[in-house]
Amino acid sequence: MSTSEPLIRVQNMQHSYTMAGESMAILKGLTFNIDYGEFVAIIGPSGSGKSTLMNMLGCLDVANEGDYFLDGQEIRKLSDNKLAQIRNEKIGFIFQNFNLLPKLSAVENVELPLIYRGMSHRERREVARNALVRVGLESRIDHRPSELSGGQQQRVAIARALAGTPPILLADEPTGALDSKTGKEVLEMIKALNEQGHTIILITHDLEIAEQAKRIIRIQDGDLVEDRKVSHS
Amino acid sequence: MMLYQSMKMAFKSILSSKIRAFLTMLGIIIGVSSVIALVSVGQGTTSQITESLSSLGTNQLTVNIMGRGATTSLTYEEALALGEIEGVENVSPVITGNVTAKNGTENVSVSVEGITPAYEEVQDFHVQSGRFLLEIDTDYRQKVALIGTDTAEDLFGTDDPVGQKVQLNGSSFKIVGLLESKGSTSGGSSDEKILIPISTAERFLQSKGVRSITITTTSNDNVEDVKTELESTLDAKFSGAENSYSVFDSQEMLETVNETSDTLSMALGGIAGISLFVGGIGIMNIMIVSVNERTREIGIRKAIGAKKINIMMQFMIESVVLSGTGGLIGVGLGLGASWAVGKYTTMNVATSWNMVLISFTFSLIIGVVFGMIPANKAARMRPIYALRND
Q: Is B13 on the interface with A (CB under 8 A)?
């Protein structure tokens, strides 16, 4: 990857859904770049299009119009299977409701992306264990999600996102389902990960949380209305 | 590696809902076990019949005379004349009747067969002590008799009957031989009878002659020729009247039995196929429900990098594990059932390992075929749709 090419390059991204025969524009031509190591918050009220943008950035969906380059790769032209591979290798998802598989233990959940990468059993157990140690859950390795608190579950999810060492961590309202204290802890953890060099995209509707990032992109009615650096005093 | 992982996941998800898994497998279990049990019993019966038919010898023809008008039988001499037909090895005409046999105060009603010495070889029925009937006995209408083991016991208890006298309807016969024990067959006990020379019987029983003749041919290949010749001789004798006689050909019978058992096997296979098919639909049904229930799981897996083939494999393997486990349980139950039938009833059971293999393989195939639609449905799910679903 060349130094001139940013990690994420979005150019004139447009997307619309057809609902009841009517075309609804969700994204109306967004253009922005995100560099390696950035900590960006994408903020906007519900219905602003930020969730759709997250799906696009996370390669869960492909926009109707415009270009999206991720780590130097053009996403628009890729097949479903190729997209799955990109998600597996380039993106670590952290969801609002954790999205852990309830029947698997913490370590098995963390192993999941590595399974789809074809890593051997022994190697991925090792990697998953290390990821859980990084989020401070080494004592909960064999617990099921139902045996963990909300904050612990989100930490398992973060470990899962970290396990594959993807260039981007994509966090969608990561504190939304947590009380303010554990929410804060999780946010601190995300900040710390950014300090360690991970690129983080945080999607939220909460300005207070967004202020923790180093840069804020504000979306409203499918348009990019604000893109500013945050100065931390 | 991937496969092992998928198998483990499939077992896990099946074990997490045991009752549902069991009910899902029930169709396959019933299908496979009934096929194995039914086919085992069917083949056992067939092989039993085949065995008893071939023990008769496949070069044997049995003639039964019904007669026409006043002529309802052949005379002893006429029967022996059938031996002139080319290819005939032995002719064993039999005259049958019932008498009261008496020894002292012991009294028993018993069937008597008037026979020729050829009977011994044709029926494969020998004496265990004493001697068989000889030409000379028939030639001179000797009043000698062979006695079956059960009748001997009734009349003489534990005494050796050979050399003793027995009263048949008041006439005294000398017992010259004790027959070997044959046990009972469908035609009644072979051990409850008395054999006397046919010439003696003709007079003594005042019977209307020979009604049953067993003929052996010189080889298995000329049975048909002899039969044709025999039929034309008998037609001439009875002026071609219908139903005046019948010729029973054990080889022909054997073919009929085999044909029947083949048809039976086909029918069983058909029933098995239908029940397995129904079982397969049950599996498909539950797999579709399972895919719908696990939409979110599919979404998560896809989001973190599962490809279509990964999701497809996961559900296919689950379906095959379900049907395969059902198949295995079915095999176990089927083998158990046929073993129990063999042990606790008089039916003969022959376990067909071929059938076990076929029905198990078929249950696996059912899993693949009926898992296809649900697995494909899961694999095609779009991740954003699947994640949104709660």
A: yes
Nearest-Cα distance to chain A for B270, in Å, is: 41
C-alpha distances out from residue B322 to A72, B274, B313, Å = 45, 18, 14
How many angstroms away from the CA of B309 is the closest CA of chain A?
9
Residue A116 in contact with partner chain B when CB distance is under 8 A: yes
Q: Which residues pair with B65 in a beta bridge?
A: B245
Which pLDDT band, with edges at 50, 70 and 90, does B208 fall under? low
Which of B1, B12, B307 shows the shortest C-beta gap to A84? B307
Write out pLDDT tens, residues B291-305: 999 899 999 999 999
Task: Give backbone dihedrals phi and psi of A71, rounded to 5 degrees, phi first.
Answer: 55, 40
Q: Report pLDDT digits (tens) over B326-335.
A: 999 999 999 9
Say how far apart CA B84 and CA B229 lie, in whole Å: 11
Q: What is the pLDDT of residue B1?
A: 47
Q: Which residue on chain B is closest to A53 by alpha carbon?
A: B384
Residue partners of A32: CB distance under 8 A and separation at least 6: A8, A10, A217, A224, A227
Question: What is the phi-psi region of residue A12: left when phi exceeds 0, alpha when psi lies from -120 to 50, beta otherwise?
Answer: left
Enclosing H/E stretch for A15: strand A8-19
Looking at residue A1, its pLDDT comes to 46
Please identify every stretch of chain A with a pLDDT value under 70, giving residue numbers as ranges: 1-3, 233
Residues A124, A112: Cα–Cα separation, whole Å? 9
Q: Cβ atoms within 10 A of the Cβ of B7, count?
A: 16
Per the CB < 8 Å rule, is A87 touching B304?
A: yes
Which string of DSSP letters, residue by residue, matches A160-191? HHHHT--SEEEEESTTTTS-HHHHHHHHHHHH
**Tokens linked to B176:** 């010259």
CA gap B235, B65 in Å, rounded: 11
CB contact under 8 A, B304 and A116: yes
Which candidate from B2, B13, B296 shows the least CB-CB separation from A103?
B13
Q: State the pLDDT confidence band at B230, using cuts at 50, 70 and 90.
A: confident
pTM for this prediction = 0.71
Q: Which residue has the higher pLDDT, B56 or B282?
A: B282
Q: What is the pLDDT of residue B2?
A: 66
B75 in Cβ contact with B201 (< 8 Å): no
Give which of B279, B278, B284, B287 is closest to B13, Cα–Cα.
Answer: B287
ipTM field: 0.92
